[in-house]
Amino acid sequence: MTLAAGSRLGPYEILSPLGAGGMGEVYRARDSRLGREVAVKVLAAGTTESKERTLRFEREARAASALNHPNIVTIHDIGDEDGTVFIAMEYVDGATLRESLPGGPMPPKKILDIAVQVADGLAKAHAAGIVHRDLKPENVMITKDGFVKVLDFGLAKLVDTGSEGEGLPTSAPTATREGMVMGTIGYMSPEQASGIAVDYRSDQFSFGAILYELATARRAFERKTAPETLTAIIREEPPSIEQFDPRFPAPLRWIIERCLEKEPEERYASTKDLARELARLRQRLPEATGSGETAASPAKRETEAARSFQRLSFRRGTVLSARFAPDAQTVIYGAAWEGSPFRLFSTRRESPESSALMLPDAEILSISSTGMMAISLDRHWAGRFMWTGTLAQVSILG
């Protein structure tokens, strides 16, 4: 049922609706006892007679109320008013991550600001033996002053933490039955999509899918139908972020790729380790204007505007890498022109033509001060975010 402004649930006066989801409706309300604003989540109409749904709803409150962390929405209360089950929680004045998407790729520095906070919150939950299982942009809130809050542990699952703090799925009654697929299609882990048992590493995959979307402005596994999307999650790899933005910081790309590994064992052994790696990267990454480049002073920007640029290649195809030779005038680059295999070419600024080096198909990796080149022979895409080839060296003179 929809609650009207002015109606009450226990000590909470309903002020206005905030949104609705699969588990229920959320309202902005006022706690008459403490005089503070809260968010009240009410179990969706027509579901209170379902014992399983009610238990899941109450489990969300119990799981989240055990967590005390600045990046997790605080649960204040749970109640039942004339058969209407509700949860009173911290009111977050802001917007969801979905609502905050810029309409294009998000700058890496901004991605890291969000990622560090989400990972900190997840690490706290996982250390307490709680797996979210429904992590998505709609369940991440960003306040007006930039703080990030993870909310809606509606599918939260308790796990046995054992001695390591983050453990394997429990067989307790709160656990989902084997073969039941739960979560949000598009952000599920392969194990979720397969209906098998999950642990904290499932949240890492969902987290990686969110970061991939922030970096590329496209979902990692979106297909035309839900079954096709589930199949893609289980069996297919998303295009590398490098294909969308070659300047995207490689360390952040590697973190996202590791989170999106199909096998849980290939992800992070601890979400705390993931959070620490993101925090260290944020400290090292310079203040960015878009893709990790240091913001320039006005004088430097004027100098850059006055620079001229000279085009060195004029054919249609793909250039993967290029290096200056020791003479600082010759450029060696690897390119695949018009569908041909990658080969090495040399060019100079005074010549509009490139010359193919008399070498097998290869890509340039490095050139030493003595003119020795490190090259990759027969380099090709091997899937799972990897290239393969044979490392070799050869003199620039042949």
Summarize the structure.
With 398 residues, the protein is of the alpha+beta class.
Descriptive overview:
With 398 residues, this protein is an alpha+beta fold. The protein is built from ten helices and 19 strands. Helix 5 packs across helix 8. It is elongated, with a radius of gyration of 26 Å.
| Average predicted confidence as pLDDT | 82
Low-confidence stretches: 160-164, 167-180, 287-297
Radius of gyration: 26 Å
Q: Enumerate how many helices there are, as a single number.
A: 10
Question: What string, H for helix and E for strand, traces the elements in order?
Answer: EEEEHEEEHHEEEEEHHHHHHHEEEEEEE
Strand order of the largest sheet: 1-2-3-4-6-5
Beta-strand portion reads 25-35%
- Output the structural class: alpha+beta
Biggest sheet record: 6 strands, antiparallel
Descriptive keywords:
398 residues; 6-stranded antiparallel beta sheet; 27% helix
Question: How would the blueprint of this fold be written?
Answer:
Blueprint: E1 8-9, E2 12-20, E3 24-31, E4 36-43, H1 51-65, E5 75-81, E6 84-90, E7 94-96, H2 97-100, H3 108-127, E8 130-131, E9 140-143, E10 148-150, E11 157-160, E12 168-169, H4 190-193, H5 200-216, H6 226-235, H7 241-244, H8 250-259, H9 271-284, H10 298-306, E13 317-324, E14 330-337, E15 343-348, E16 355-356, E17 362-367, E18 372-383, E19 386-395
Antiparallel strand pairs: 1-2, 2-3, 3-4, 4-6, 5-6, 7-9, 8-11, 9-10, 11-12, 13-14, 14-15, 15-16, 17-18, 18-19
Helix pairs in contact: 3-5, 3-9, 5-8
